[in-house]
Amino acid sequence: MLKKRSTLALACALALTLSACSSGSNGTTPDATNKPANKGGNQEVGATDTPENVTLRMAWWGSQPRHDYTLKVIEMYEEQNPHVTIEPEYASWDDYWKKLAPQAAASQLPDIIQMDLSYLAQYGENGVLSDMSPFLGNPIDTTNIADTVVDGGKIGDKLFGFNLGVNALGFQYDPALLQKMGMSDIPDEWTWDDYMEMAVKAKDAGIYIDTGMRAEVFLAYYLRTQGASLFSADGTQLGYDDDQLFIDHFSRVTKIVLDGAGMTPDQKAQLKGPEDDPAVKGEALGIWQWSNQFVGFQQLAQRDLAMQPMPGPNRQEGMFLKPSMYFSISENSKAKEEAAKFINFFVNDIEANKLILGDRGVPGSSVVKDALRPELTPQQVQVFDYIAWAEENSSQMDPPDPIGAAEVFTALTTVAEQMEYDKLSVEEGAKQFREEANKILAKNK
Amino acid sequence: MRKRAVKWSLYHVFVLVFSLLMLYPVIWLVMSSFKPTHLIFPTAGSLLPSPWTFENYAKGWEGIGNQTFSVFIRNSLVIVVLSTVGAVVSSALVAFGFARLKFAGKAFWFTVMMLTLMLPGEVIMIPQYILFAELGWLNSIKPLVVPSYFGHTFFIFLMIQFIRTLPVELDEAATIDGCNKFTLFYRIILPLILPAIATSAIFSFYWGWENLLGPVLYLNSPAKYPVSMALKMFLDNETVSNWGAMFAMSVVTLLPVFAIFFAFQRYIVEGISTSGLKG
Amino acid sequence: MNKTLRNHLTGYLFISPFLIGFLAFTLIPIGASAYLAFTDYSLFGKSVWIGLDNFKEMFTSDSKYIQSLKVTAIYVFGGVPLRLAFALFVAMLLNTATRAVGAYRTMLYLPSIIGGSVAVSIMWRNVFGDEGIVNLGLRALGLEGVRWFGDPLAAIWMLIFLSVWQFGSSMLIFLAGLKNIPSSYYEAASVDGANGLQKFVRITLPMLTPVIFFNTIMQTIGAFLSFVPAYIITKGTGGPLDGTLLYSLYLFRQGFEFFNMGYASAMAWVMLVIIAILTALVFLSSRFWVHYESKGGS
């Protein structure tokens, strides 16, 4: 008797577990967000005169302020377009890319994806992003946006991402600390030699000259000023033949560290975050970074800061306008045109941009820029002005980083770190980097 | 008597000091959550906040986007409670099978089970994701909860080890008294391995609570995010991170785990005397 | 049905949750990853069969790979014994019947609960920084401070100390094991005139061997697969100079930053083989040193 009942109980338990296994092939829970929208498409409600209801999934990275205003922009759009529902999916930078890769592998990408230059080639050339060229002009109105800005999202002939705003490189510093060094300002047409001299002055005044230069970004800048580039046009090898260029740039960078005018790598590793940055704390003159990081820098430092263009020679060849980020449309999206309409709204609508306020880069549309000016804080104005200047003083951007770029950058950072620890000479570093990089890029042949 | 009293007070002093030392980083975390964000790192050397502020807790509780932090905590609780119940029950069943029953292919399946533990999770992540996508389980907690109803190797192995410390005579005596395998499992063995069960429950709760990769992959809507993901959203590598709110909410989210531990640990402590042979 | 058949069926019935779960959720992904190990697969494109090329590259032309093996070996063989010994020590310390002991237990378990959050990485950077309390303590003792973040050899020890600090889980299991030892054994030994050390060696240790066995295997597997601490403390770089480039971290970078998923799968299977061999050795040796009260158990 006992036996039968207990085996029955066990069998029931089994049955329960089995049924849990086979449920949900249609996501039949009443939960709104579990609808077929998961398949990155829309739900058709039959052909009528009114536009069909559409649900778009939209993903972006950022932190609280960005999430807050973006949600408001979405609300604004939904009010003006009642047939559209946008489901937001947002996360921090790290988590965002971890999420996106499996989604791409399973063809489950959201309709609208925020995209970054460093990943554009990887996602675009592997066919998971759709070519947005058919949408240029209509529905994405580009009359007020310069071609160079739009082209920032092109790989070959295909437009894989729409540029949401631009950044430019520069040196952002504290004028008060400059005075402490005995200088009243930095000459507009300054050169790398001037920079090295300033480093000595900074050290004498008891501060660091800067907090280092991101290896791949600034090597690329220097190569551009010398008529070369980091990657070859077809992405199968390095874009410069003369190792002396590498040596010139990194001799400067490592000299600064080894002479004590800049932080050592292990000091940098201990920094807990941007607020710990020596420049924020007044222990370094400034930071080499992108223009859109200026506002955050100033907020942390709580004092007046200045933006200085990059040093020469050949500055114009070196400077370029980098797309800060893009919106792309996934290839598996079933509502590409609706997605494009939203992107048009995002980059052209003035009320929306009053909420965005250049957080995703200085907008490409001249009309939007003019309309925003009265709304900006003084620091944001500094950024807008800087970009306006950069527009007149830049040359064309290099093509987006090829596949394998992430690995090349890791190799470069490793070599740079070894040079800064004085474990590798700059000459050896040049050779080592070339070998490793070409090995990685050769896979693109 | 005095000698014993001295011994005991020395013991207490030693353990207390030792505990505090071990806890220093945690104490630092808690103290920092009461400092205004911009003072956390500049005053990292001194523990006591001055001024003392509760704004981090207030701000942090407001949450991110449109969700208050209570939403995230609720999400975590649902996932964790569901999966803990499933994991403990199913693991116990499986452990009993491996530890006490004889059947063909046992060694084979045990080896397979151990092997599944040794493969780095990252590489089955993508195929598994595609599998769950085919099942339509994306953007839901199903991939996070359902698998735990099929046993968790760590707990299974732990319980096996505990069952094996029980004398076989116990089983024999029970069978003579009329128990079948299931009653043997339910009435005799299970109560005797309560420490292992309590330990498994604590671990399952804690691991589920801090699991980040699973939610990152399978939960798209921020309304469904658990606390592990929510905490990361306070940080930003582009502009200012809200350390104060993040520390404050970290402290808040520690409390449930702390509570569960405190509640369950006495089941581990109240050791079962295996002189059950006599009883 | 006859008794043996019913026994087999009952056995399978009990382990059916595991079997079903394995067949449903794990078998196919594991098979897929085994296949991928022999391909060049970038997650989005097609997978291209390349035979043993991944394995060849790993062992002959990838210096970072070899480095990750070395780093992981130090982490496992240096860290696991330390962690277990520490956990056992504390468990014994807390195996008393005073009322405060519940509180102590909770306090000492607390570090493990903090887990791998970003908060931990901040704290750890604080503690091991140039001006952190560890270096302050060292200097107070007359020693030089250590460049925990700058010296590749020291950095891995920083991670080891982090894992030792989070010994709570092993401690808990040891505690459970300790509580499982009947006090009657100790009483009998006292009657026979045994002192503390003898009791420890003759009663505690042998009775604990099943749990020591469990912890050794689990901690070793866990250490080999350890990822989060290295990721958060070094901000995902494995620095300085790859001094903390744990195997799992390198695997993650290959798979999810460089999109070399085929290569990462190959790495994963090599790791599986290494762990399996080591675990098998421990299992085989267990016959000699693990003592189960249930003679004749499986």
Describe it for me?
The complex is a heterotrimer of chains A (445), B (279) and C (298). Chain A is 46% helix and 11% strand. Chain A is α+β, with helices and mostly antiparallel strands and 445 residues long. Chain A has two domains: 169 residues, D-Maltodextrin-Binding Protein, domain 2, CATH 3.40.190; 201 residues, 3-Layer(aba) Sandwich (D-Maltodextrin-Binding Protein, domain 2), CATH 3.40.190.10. The N terminus of chain A is likely disordered. Chain B is mostly helical. Helix content of chain B is 70%, strand content 0%. With 298 residues, chain C is mainly α. Helices cover 73% and strands 1% of the residues of chain C. The two termini of chain C are 24 Å apart. Chains in contact: A-B, A-C, B-C. The interface between A and B is large, with 56 and 48 residues.
For the structure shown, list the relevant keywords.
heterotrimer; A: about 450 residues; alpha+beta; D-Maltodextrin-Binding Protein, domain 2; 2 domains; 5-stranded mixed sheet; 3-stranded antiparallel sheet; 19 helices; globular; disordered N terminus; C: about 300 residues; mainly alpha; MetI-like fold; two-stranded antiparallel ribbon; 13 helices; 2 strands; flat
Q: Outline the biggest β-sheet of chain B.
A: none
Question: How many DSSP E strands of chain A?
Answer: 12
Strand order of the largest sheet of chain A: 2-1-3-12-6
Our measurement of the CA-to-CA distance between the termini of chain A, rounded to an integer number of angstroms, reads 73 Å
Write out the CATH superfamily name of the largest domain in chain A. Answer: Periplasmic binding protein-like II
* Average pLDDT over all residues of chain B: 84
Largest interface: B-C, 99 and 104 residues
The CATH topology name of the largest domain in chain A reads: D-Maltodextrin-Binding Protein, domain 2
Task: Supply Rg of chain B.
Answer: 24 Å
Shape of chain A: globular
CA radius of gyration of chain A:
26 Å
Which CATH C-level class of the domain at 68-212 and 255-277 in chain B is it? Mainly Alpha
Query: Considering the protein shown, what is the CATH homologous superfamily of the domain at 68-212 and 255-277 in chain B?
Result: MetI-like
Spans where pLDDT lies below 50 across 5 or more residues of chain B: 271-279
